[in-house]
Amino acid sequence: MFLLRLAVLLLGIALAPGFLRAADAENIRYLFLVRHGDYDSSDLSNPVAGPGLNALGKEQAAFVASRLAALPITFDTVVTSQLARARETGDIIAAKLGHTVQRDANLSETRPPGDGVPPFAVVASAEAQLQRAWNRYVVPAPPGAVTHDLLICHGNVIRWFVVRALGADPRQWSRMEIGNASITVIEVLPNGSTNLLLYNDTSHIPVGKQSWGDRLPDWAAPPAAAPAR
After folding, report:
1. Which of 30, 48, 132, 156 is the most exposed place for a label (fewest CB within 10 A)?
2. Distance, C-alpha 53 to centroid of its chain
């Protein structure tokens, strides 16, 4: 009778979701997606790389770098888009982590079809570009491995990844807001399915240093810095 009860107990433990997850935890990929810091969108001096970070953006990049460096993990890769604001954010983070940086044009900002996005504003190549990025990064970890990949990119890219990770209509990306230097985490399971673990975390940035996009939270955005004289 004791052995029968023990067998039933062990079977119950083995079938529990937490046990199954722990037993399979070696084949998990964690994607950390960080949006670049604040920048001056009116700066058109470099039409290819776009504007770089402003003073606030550099502060935000330092805040998120410290947050990531304090995590009890080691990042396997650090990748940024080709645009200046993401490259500069990534360089600040990588320096704090003591890591080398890779660049990937597929992570550069674009605008796919979205709810409320007028057709003339859609970038024709956006969906193909984002699909290439998804196919490259949203893949299971190698057998027996747990990997942590850090992607420093852009608001539209991250939001599109999030709705895909949730299995929602990719057009829903435009219904979400995201802050500068925020952290989003997507978990990729061994079977290729995905879970959203964290979205738009800006807790590492003081409220007075946070900045967002077109739709702000219910507190004022930081005042613009006075132009240099």
Report:
1. 48
2. 18
Q: What is the pTM of this model?
A: 0.83
**Tokens read off for 48:** 């290819």
| CA-to-CA separations, 110 to 58, 89, 157, 161, 200, in angstroms, rounded | 22, 18, 7, 13, 19
**Residue with token string 């590492």:** 204
pLDDT tens digit sequence for 36-50: 999 987 776 777 787
Task: Look up the CATH superfamily of 25-209.
Answer: Phosphoglycerate mutase-like (3.40.50.1240)
- Give per-residue burial for 121-146: e unless 16+ CB within 10 Å, then b: eeeeebeebbeebbeebbebbeeeee
Confidence of residue 9 (pLDDT cuts 50, 70, 90): very low
For CA atoms 46, 47, 52, 55, the dihedral sign is positive
